[in-house]
Amino acid sequence: MSGSPPVTAGPLAGVRVLEVGHMLAGPYATMLLADLGAEVTKIEPAGGDISRQVGDAYFASLNRGKRSVRLDLGTPAGQERLGELAAGAHALLANLKPSAIRRLGLTYDALRRWNERLVCVALTGFGMDAGDVPAFDYIVQAATGVAALTGDPDGPPTLPGYSSADNSAGLAAALGLLAQIVSGRGGQVEVSLRDVMLSQLNYRASAYLNDGAEPRRLAMGAHSYYVPAQLFPTADGHLALFVTHDAFWKSFCAEAGVSGFTTMAERAAHRDEVLALVTRALAADTADGWETRLRARGVPVAAVRTLPEALAATPEAVVSAGGFRLVGSPIRAAGHAPAYGPPPHLGEHDRREPPMAPSAGGAP
Fold first, then answer.
1. pLDDT at 6 over 70
2. TM spans, by residue (predicted)?
C-alpha cells in the first residue's frame, strides 16, 4: 500500500533459540519467538516430538517457522552436538520433566562451559525441585483450583475447552527467556505451569489471602466483583455483558429500558435483583441484536459464538504456513509482517554447520 512503512526484519532477528520439548507449552513459547523473527531450532529425538503423532495440522499449529535437528542427547556424540549448538545460541528452552532436563544436560550449569551468556529456561509442571510428578494441562488446572472455580455452582468442576495452562505457561516462558537475554547475563530461568496458573488467579488469591474470602462458582460464569458481568440468555443465543462501572450501566439502562441500582455498590449488594432485571430485559431481543444495539452505546458486550463463527468473523487472524491454515501471531510489531514458514520435517536441518557465536542482532 502506498505510504505504508517498509516491512523490516522481525524484532527478534538475529536471536537464536534452541528448543527441546514435546506437545504444547514449550513449542508454543518458541513459535511465538519464531513469529517475531527468531531462528528457532527444534532438537528432536529419532522419533520426533510426540505431537507429530497427533496430526500434521496439530504439529503445524505449534511449530511453524522452525528448524528441526535430530539428536540422541543420551549419547556423547549427541551431547557434543548440543554443546556446539549452544555455543551459537542465545537461549535454550527445555520442556521436559525435571530429571530429564538434568540428565540430558539442558541446564545452564551443564552448558555454561560452551556459552557463558546462554539463557536456559526449564519449563516444567510443578518446578525443578518438585520431582517428576506427571504434569499435563488438565492436571495442573485441577491442582491449582482452576477446575474448582469453573462450571455451574450446582454442577461438577469443569475444565475450559482449551489448554489454558499450557498456553499461559508458554507465554510466561517466552517472557522469562527474553528478559534474561536482555539482561545480558545468561543463566537459568524456571517457569512452572503450577506457578503460572496460581499467578493468573491473582485477585481471587488476594481476596482469600488478605480477607479470607474463599472463592466460589457463580452461575453463568459471573464475575465475583462486577454486577452484571456474565453470560445471559436472550431471545436467541447467549450474550456476554460486562458492566464494570456506572457509565456502562447507565448506557445499558438507556438502551434496555430499565432503571435503578445506579452505583456499583448497589448492584453488588443486590446481585440477584439486578440479574433478574437484566435477564428479563435481554429476553426482548436476540444476542446478535443486543450486541449491535449495545455496542453502539459503547457497552462491552458480545454474542456467544462458536470457534468457526469467530474465525469467519476475523479472516485477518488466519494465515498460511506451508500449506496449513493457522491462527497467526497475536503480536503486532511496527514494520514487521511475519513470514510464517512451514513446520519442519523431522531432521530437516540435520546437516552439520560450523558453530557460530551469538550475533549482536536482536540481543545485547
1. no
2. none
